[in-house]
Amino acid sequence: MTAKVLQTMLCLSSWRASMSIFNLSTAWVLAELSPSPMINSLLILPRSISAILPLQRSRRGLFFFTIAAILFEVVVIGMYFDFGNKAALIFLTFFSAQLASLGITKSDAVIIGFTQTSEGITNQQVLQGKDIGGVTGTFLGGIIYPAFKLLPPTLLLMLPVAWLADRENKKQSQASPNQTEIKKGVPPLERWSLLNGLVDGALFSLLPLWVLQIKGGDSVDLSWIIGSFMLGRVFQKRLLLKMKTASYYGLCAILIFLAAHPNTPIWLDVVLFMPLGASIARIQLELVDHLHSYGNPARRFDIIGRSNTIAGVFGGLAMGVTGELFGIREALGLLAIAFAGVGLASWRWQRPVPSNQT
Questions:
Q1: Taking residues 175-204, what's their average pLDDT?
Q2: Which has the least CB within 10 A, 123, 185, 270, 331?
């Protein structure tokens, strides 16, 4: 790996770390503001609605993400100094999540496209760069939130990717004066990505509330669990053998069932989430290969991301209703069954080797 490729990968990781800190912090703040599983699960709506909108992909999405980070600082200040009613702070949390989603949806595929067109980075390296950033942001978010509630690390970690976007924009301007940036339309939905997003969205919708209420943990515990999940994604090649996609789903079901068991201590949950992250990463890499007929890997990541996000809305809301009616631990048990069901459905997955249908 050359120095230039490493530099670009670090920019991508920094962008992902910024997103992770923001997402972790908003989820944890909402869990502190409201004990309701339904309200907590609703966070997936503002995070996901932008995926439904016909948005042009553009680096200008970074501006919306910056505004979202600043607005969320207002929420944290309101909690820290105990002013403003909870309903207003909950509304501002949702609104900042909506702005961040808008920025991420518009800019993420373009940033990935920058890394691949300028450096020729592989799909595996893109996924690793994103996941390393996710791990870094998750651990930073867990440490920074309780210790430095007013520190805006999200904004600081955006600086490298802003520099990358500006550099690539100048390159494109010099190469083609009439086209100053890459713009892409709305990607289509894909059925296997929708199924994957349904269960993934359900998994993370109540995770902060599960740690806070069921496990009696704090934001540091949550960061350890999500960080373990992200580390599993980074080291998935070393953690898991090559298996059928259905087997990865089955492994996810077993791990979630064990984590939901009443006698499972939180340290074991941290351990269990590492192979869980590795399994989900393997499934997503299978999806990227499955969509090879769509060409550009950045386009394939965008298709998977949009499909996952839209389906995740329904998965998260279903999890919220289930948690409200039956309890959070019981909802996790049902989620394990859902993962097994998607695994059974994925037996029909036909990997297109020469030129099969997608």
A1: 73
A2: 185
